[in-house]
Amino acid sequence: MIPLSYYLILSATLFAIGTAGVFMRRNLITILLSIEIMLNAVNLTFVAAGRHFGTVDGQVIVFFVMTVAAAEAAVGLALVISLFRHKESLSPDVFTSLKW
CB count, 10 Å around CB of 21? Predict the structure, then answer.
């Protein structure tokens, strides 16, 4: 059986990679993907903790987090497409003001 600490280390590593992607990248699509990596790291923590403590609470929470992540991806991609059609760029520096 794999110890809980291994899962938590993997989750922290994935979360750190996602955080670095959000802060270092200059592309909206890559930023959205980094946020998804961060959400999956949290999901891994919930499932590992639920398995360790012998409950299904972590899996129930993961279901809700995945639902929110799917909605975030759909709305985020719709906004990215709308912004790209208007400015023809995916750099966050271009979108400093929300004036059309």
Answer: 19
